[in-house]
Amino acid sequence: MAITFSINMVSMPRLSIYKPEKGNDYKFLDRNINEMFQVGGVDIFYHKYIGPYDQGATNKDGPASPTLPNYEGATNETTIQDLLFLENRDRKYDPDVYIIRGIYNVQDTDFNLSQFGMFLQNDTLFLTVHLNDTIERLGRKPMSGDVIEFPNLKDEYSLDASIPIALKSFYVVEDVNRAAEGFSPTYWPHLYRLKLKTLVDSQEFRDILGDATKAGTLASYMSTYNKEKQINDAIVNQAQIDDPKSGYNYKEFYVTPVDARGNVRLNSVNDTVDTVSNNEETVNNRLDSPISNPYAGYMGGDGFPPNGYLAGADNKFPTTNVKTGDYFLRVDYLPNRLFRYDGNRWVKIQDAVRMTTTNDDTRNTFKTSFINNSGTTVINGLTVEQRQSLSDALKPLADN
Fold this sequence. Notes:
Layout: H1 23-40, E1 42-52, E2 91-104, E3 111-112, E4 119-120, E5 124-130, H2 131-138, E6 147-149, E7 170-178, E8 191-198, H3 206-209, H4 218-222, H5 225-242, E9 266-276, E10 281-287, E11 312-314, E12 327-330, E13 337-341, E14 346-351, H6 366-371, E15 376-379, E16 382-385, H7 390-393
Parallel strand pairs: 11-12
Antiparallel strand pairs: 1-2, 1-6, 2-5, 3-4, 5-8, 6-7, 7-8, 9-10, 12-13, 13-14, 15-16
C-alpha cells in the first residue's frame, strides 16, 4: 500500500533589524541609553532661547521699519529681529533654568603655537545629550543660541578676593546634529551632539549676564569689559599727553620777516620813546611782522602768529589802535582764521586746523560740529534731533 504525504510550504518573513516603525525594540534601547546618561552623565543647566525682544515701533511717529519688523509680542525662536543684517541682537531667554544630563570629553585647554600668533586650541566643546529626554524636558529640540552652564566647572578660587561668587562656566550652542554613535542597531537615532563655544560678554547675552557697567551683575564679575575700558582710557590719555593735537607744532621756531630779495624787512618808525641798550639811543627802525610761516605745512595751522604776538581775538575785526603787521584771530570762522593787517586790508595767514584727535572736546570745524551734532530743534512744538540717520530721513515704504 502506497502512503502519500502532502507538505504545505509556509514562507517565512525576511529578517531585518530596521523596521519602518520604531516599535518596542526602539523603546527598550532608548530606555537603556537614557539610563547610561543618568548613571555616567553630568547635570547641565540649560538656558533656553525663546526669541528676540519685541522692538516696538522703530519710528517714533510712524509704522515699524520693514527691516526691523514689529511682531507685537508674538516672537518665538524662529523670529528674526533684524531682517537687513539677519541678526538677533536683543535675545530673550527663559527665566526658568532647565536641568538635563549630558556627556562630554574633559580636555585641556592648550595654546596652539604652530601658527602665527597664539590661538586657543580647545575652546570648542562637544556635548552629547539624550534626544528624547532633552526634548521632553525643554519642550523642543536644542538650537543655536541656547546657553549651557556647567555647574561642575565653577571656579571658587578667583584671584580677586572681592568677588563674592564662584565664577560660572557658560557655553553657547553653535550647532546641533544627530550623534553618529547615537544610532542603535535599529538605525533610529537616540542622541544629539551639540557643538559649544565659550560664551563672551556681548549684547546677545545681556539677558543672562546682565550689564557689565552696573555693579553687582554677573557680567561685572566675569566680563573683561571694565578692565578693557580702563586700559583703553589709559592709552587714550597717554596719547593725548604725547601728541595733544594733530599736525605739527611750529611755535618753537621764530620766523624772521624778509622782503622779496631775502633781506630782513624793517619798518621805519622814528620812535623817540623806545631806546636801545643803555646808551638811550632812539629807535628809528623796528622789525616787521612775518607775512607767512615758511615752516607751515599740512595740518600746521594752529592760529598762532609766526612771531608769537597776537593783537586780539574776536568775531569782528578791530577798528581802532590797529598797526601795520598786527595779527588778529577771527573766532567766528570754523576753523578759526588768523589774519594780518598790511595797512589796507586784513590778509589771511592760516586756519587753525590743528585739533585733538579724540572727541573729548568740541572741535572748531564745520565737519566735526556736523558729525558730533547733539543739538535739537523745536518744530511745531515737537523737539527734533538735528542729527538724523538716513533711515529716519528716508523712510522706506513696505511693499503691498
